[in-house]
Amino acid sequence: MQSIEVQTDGGVRSGSVQLYELGSRVRINSPNSAEPKHLSGFRWFAHRGYRHFDRQVGLSFAKKVLKSDFVMRHSFSPLIHYVKSEKRYKPEDHKTKAKDRSIMFASHRDACILSYYSWLLNKRLEETYASRDIGENVIAYRALGKGNYHFASDVYRYAHSNAPVAILAYDVTKFFDTLDHRLLKARLRGLLGVEGLSEDWFKVFRFMTKFRFVRLDDLRATPILFEAYREKRGTQSPPSPR
Fold first, then answer.
1. Neighbouring C-beta atoms of residue 104, cutoff 10 Å
2. Which of 15, 52, 141, 219 could form a Cys-Cys staple with 224, CB 3.0–4.6 A?
3. Is residue 236 part of a domain?
4. Residue 92 domain flag
């Protein structure tokens, strides 16, 4: 059990909840919404309405994130974890089965920092795809204006036009949980074109690969913290996976 402090209008409240550590990778989702005029140059920034240990942040905080020394001094908060159950129909079993998904989401300050570094990294990735002429081959986690059904349709049309072809479809169990962090770090250095990560990049990488989380159920079971959690200005439920 570890103590967590939450800043509220009435001061700092503290309580004890179980803090879990997990050495795996967090997936970042970058916002792809239209860019309002007052957010010119901050396309990566998005307001988030969910509740967390901190309050929502605005453009003033986003501007601070642009400074590497600010990120170097930043203290990342634990993620909040909950399990989302989804019903899926299994044709082979002729029945609907529930599938549990483990969801974790970052505090508003942390999410703002992660969004900016995700944006920087995505720019490097797009440049790499273009230089290697594989822009039409890589579709995961890219804003291409298409859905899975579009890509599936493209594959089927190609297969019909170029038959016979072999199509391989497979799912990697716990892909993100089992990534080799040394290889991940080496790939990151390669994309950034550096021999060693700068302090700000290393701090982000460290949080992504060795983070902590608090279970939402444990938070609800700790009245003093849950009361503070509910006082946050967020109005939405915890974010759903995308």
1. 21
2. 15
3. no
4. yes
Q: Is residue 242 part of a domain?
A: no
Residues forming a β-bridge with 6:
13
Strand bridging mode 79-90 / 211-215: parallel
d(CA 228, CA 9): 9
| Residue 49 near residue 236, CB atoms below 8 Å | yes
pTM, to two decimals: 0.76
On whether the CB atoms of residues 108 and 48 are closer than 8 A, the answer is: yes
- Look at the chain and report how many structural domains it folds into: 1
Q: pLDDT per residue over 168-210, tens digit each?
A: 888 888 888 888 999 999 999 999 999 999 999 999 999 999 9
pLDDT mean across residues, the chain: 81
Banded model confidence at residue 1, pLDDT cuts 50, 70, 90: low
| 113: number of Cβ within 10 Å | 24
Expressed as residue numbers, the domain containing 208 is 2-230
Positive or negative: CA dihedral 224, 230, 234, 238: positive
Does some domain include residue 8? yes
d(CA 53, CA 175): 29
